[in-house]
Amino acid sequence: MDIRHLTPDYAVSPQITPEDMATLKGLGFTTVIDNRPDGEIPAEWSAEVMAEAAAAQGLAFVVNPIRPGDFSDAVLAAQGAAIAGGGKVFAYCASGNRSSCAWAMSAPGPLSTEERIAIPARFGYNLEGLRARIAALRG
């Protein structure tokens, strides 16, 4: 598992497995967000399987699938609500990019647009194409 901390309380990664939930619990995460649509993955990583694995570890699990480029108001509201729920949040998708983009556009707090782009860039995520949208949504 390749965990990339965007903030002390929010991290992203590429696809994880059900077995990774115990590690996430041990690292202090309290919420896991699945940003990957089931149609992209094999059945053994489906949202249902992952939710069961999270529940077995006492982790909250949020299913918020993001199709590439689909950062709808509903998707961003769900991501923001999960982040604002408190505790350490871990989000995953195919590479971590969609989870980073959703964070930049929905995370509460005073981070500037520049910071919301620069932080994910440290991990190779290029959010420049979303600059205007991030600025409009988050300032």
From TrEMBL:
Q: Which Pfam families match?
A: BLH_phosphatase
Q: Tell me which domain of life the UniProt entry assigns to the organism this sequence originates from.
A: Bacteria
Residue intervals of the Beta-lactamase hydrolase-like protein phosphatase-like domain: 2-107
Under the GO molecular function aspect, what terms does this record hold?
hydrolase activity
* Name of protein: TIGR01244 family phosphatase
